[in-house]
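Problem 12. The chain below contains 132 residues. Write out its predicted structure in token notation.
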Amino acid sequence: MVEIGQLHRKLSHSYFIRHDISPSTPLILEVLFENDGASMNTLAQLTHRDNGSITSSIKTLTKKGFVIKIQDSKDKRINLAFITEKGKKAVQRIKDYHQKIEEKGFLGFNEEEKKLFLSYLERIEKNLDPKA
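Solution.
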């Protein structure tokens, strides 16, 4: 399992770098795509990262034009992140890449085998989830 994770990270890293996406930010972009206008705290909770790493990633994403950061009009202490059109296009590339990798990984599997494997992964995820 570790080897598969390492191989996936290596392939992903190379792909994201070619598309000017920092390897640590695809999840943040995907979450922000679904939760546009989220605060840094909300992004930290949804991505299971600390506020400092979210702030740093949002700063990088802002510099690259994927995100804009706006101060909350009701509470000036809170910054909200909004995904730009460039960010939305990046999310589509990320989703396309994930689909391509999943298809490649499941080559030679029939639907029954694929469903069974995914059910095993869900069980492993539940077993490893600290909240369970």
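Discussion. The chain has six helices and three strands. Students who got a different answer should revisit the alignment rule from Section 12.3.
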